[in-house]
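Lab notebook, bench 4. Still working through the backlog of constructs that have no structural model yet. Next entry is a single chain of 186 residues. Request: give me the structure tokens for it.
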Amino acid sequence: MLVECYDEKGAEVYSMIIKQIFQDLVLGPSIQDLKAFVNPSEPVFILAIKMKKTSDVIKLNKIAKLTYKKDSDVTDIFVENENYLPNILKKLWFMYSREDIYQPTRYNIEIKGDQTKIADMVVDSPQSNLQRRIYDAIFRILPEGFKIIKDISQNDIIAVIATDELIKDDWIDKANVYIEELENEQ
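Model written out:
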């Protein structure tokens, strides 16, 4: 972790703040590296975070059995791992509506018609979940009053520039250098 600041004490304080927030949100094990730049004389805060690789997305057909019952014109979904049940229901309610989803038992869900095409529906994405948690941390870390934020994230690197003024090109360049350095790390 690198926190650059022209004021040594400022760098120490921000390093401590970042570590504390990452500890509070249990993000430390999910982060490969981090680079930050703080400049009190020019109100700018640049933060680039490289995430560790996560597991692949979880698709419905990996955690549930889908069967179309032609005689009753119903697709039956038997959920084998109940940990994903809230995510499955949330996605189905969004795709169809609550009225179209019938749940006769804890592990069974029924939908009218042949809906077996949803077998490849993504139920959970660890990468997206991690990104969401990192953005939460970033917004806790950013200095109060820095309302102008530019997100220049790429692939597995989340990078933002924050200020209370117009964003300068050299700040974007610095953030891009951080991204490049993080991308080249193994």
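Notes after review: The chain has a mean pLDDT of 92. The chain has two domains: 2-53+126-183, 58-124. Flag for follow-up if needed.
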